[in-house]
Amino acid sequence: MTLPTSPRPQQRTTPPATRRQSRWCRALPAAAAASLLLVACGSGDGGAKKPGAADDPSAQLLVWTDSTRQPGFEQFKKAHPNVPMKIETYDSETLLTKIQLFNRTGKGWPDVLFSQVPNDVAALSSKQYDFAQPLDALIPADVRTGFGKSNADCTIDGKLYCLKNDLAQSVLWYDKSLMDQFGYQVPTTWNEYRDLGLKVAKEHPGYLVGTAGFKFLYYDFFWASGCPLQQVTGPDQVVIDTKDPRCTRVADLLDPLIAAGSVSRSGPFDTDVIKLGQEKKILMMPGASWYGDFVFKPDNSFKSAKGTIAAAAYPKWEGESTNWSGSTGGGIYMVSKHTKNTKGAYDMAQWMATSNEYQSTAATYPAYGPAAQVWSSRVNADGFYASDPFPVLQGAVDRVNPIEANTRYQIDAPMTATVVEKVRGGGKIADGLSELDKQLTQLAQMSGYTVK
After folding, report:
1. Which pLDDT score is estimated for 15?
2. How far apart, in whole angstroms, are the C-alpha atoms of residue 212 and residue 99?
3. How many CB atoms lie within 10 A of CB 10?
4. Which of 264, 268, 328 is nearest to 298 (CA)?
5. Are domains 16-167+328-389 and 170-325+402-451 of this chain identical in fold?
């Protein structure tokens, strides 16, 4: 998921978080079989740094990245010609298998790694993979402060293991022209959202206020609601409980809207929903901060008209004091503990995550606060939106519900195989919750967690 991170503008052949987390959409047996593969890399030629060995600032840095971040690393290379480095794109599907192979052979690790899967930090910082370097003593305190709460999910057992590249906080996207035309008010609570959705189904059948047939159902609704599916309560301890009221209220909210037809059984990237978008029949859609640029705007997606789409703060659940958001993505930079050039590696990771030179033109909302302020000018001058969405996006940054955290088990495939499958097959969200609980519990236990 992914967050999501960013695709190339106007080239969304696959949604950002879909690409980023595609390896977790497979069935469990396939994932287990994949873990048995030994995939040779042939990229890195350095071995592990020997204990006590001094850093070598002339040692070449091997960078692994996705194609979207590659131009940023090329930009760093051009700005730092004295830093020896080699940039390679890699297949995220085989990342963990390759790291295990390198651990056995004692060589081949990348020095700097960009991952599209935020959960990777939980695995790569664990004893099982022993890859990620703690960054607390390497990144200056003022730089860490500039991230605010954005690096919270990079912190495992009290140590900072990654730097966040971008954020994917949830907001409520809506078509302002349609809302004005129909005389509707933007909902500020989920009860108002439900009531408006039922009203839309009756007064304007065929129009949508959201979708439920995709794995983003977890990020946009369950996570934002505080449903404990990845709640880390201690070292190797998690809470998974789909009977929690914060889980069941999601089903209570959406199932009536799905039955009424104003929330689609498809996902935002399915052809039937894209067709409705191009027919200007998407009234509202809860979704990540990148939806504006990569769902509503592109010609091969909703192709919304200029000046019609706006963002509003996420609605609030009854009894809550905060209108919590979810998070669909957000890539991360990690530094290898095996690197022979530690300072060069973390300097590069820090530059990628914080440089105004790079982040000001980034495709998605920068995680580093000062860079986000510079990035906002691009959004302000865009001309696509009915009003500047940046204040709303900024307001959601610190409202991503802290109950969920990165874990060594992945949630996309179980969510797809249980709840989403029920929805797409004509059933209810509520019908898939018990099986989701069972599958997640099994995965968590297989990953070494005690489940409460």
Report:
1. 45
2. 35
3. 12
4. 268
5. yes
- Check pLDDT > 70 for residue 102: yes
- Check: CB of residue 320 under 8 Å from CB of residue 306: no
What's the pLDDT tens digit per position in 306-341?
999 999 999 999 999 999 999 998 999 999 999 999
Locate the domains of the chain by residue range: 16-167+328-389, 170-325+402-451
Helix (H, G, I), strand (E, B) or coil at 274: helix
* Residue pair 409/199 in contact by the 8 Å Cβ criterion: no
Span 222-233, average pLDDT: 97
Q: Any idea which residue has 């199932």 for tokens?
A: 255
448: left (phi over 0), alpha (psi -120 to 50) or beta: left
Structure tokens at 138: 């390497």
Rounded CA gap, 152 and 138, in Å?
Answer: 17
Span 254-273, pLDDT tens digits: 999 999 999 999 999 999 99
Residue 40 reports pLDDT greater than 90: no
DSSP secondary structure letters along 374-397: HHHHHHHT---BSS--HHHHHHHG
Q: In what order do the strands lie in the sheet with 450-451?
A: 231-234, 237-239, 450-451
Do 112 and 349 form a contact (C-beta atoms < 8 A)? yes
Q: Please spell the DSSP secondary structure of 179-236, one letter per residue.
A: HHHHTPPPPSBHHHHHHHHHHHHHHSTT-BSEE-SSTHHIIIIIIHHT--SSEEEETT
Q: Class for domain 16-167+328-389, per CATH?
A: alpha beta
Task: Give the separation between CA 73 and CA 162, rounded to whole angstroms.
Answer: 17
Q: How confident is the model at residue 48 (pLDDT cuts 50, 70, 90)?
A: low
- Residues in the chain, total: 452
Name, in order, each residue with C-beta under 8 angstroms of 143's C-beta and a sequence gap of 6 or more. 350, 354
CATH architecture observed for domain 170-325+402-451: 3-Layer(aba) Sandwich (3.40)
Give the start-end residues of each E strand in 118-165. 155-156, 159-160, 163-164
Q: Is 446 helix (H, G, I), strand (E, B) or coil?
A: helix
Nearest to 395 by CA among 188, 138, 180, 214: 188
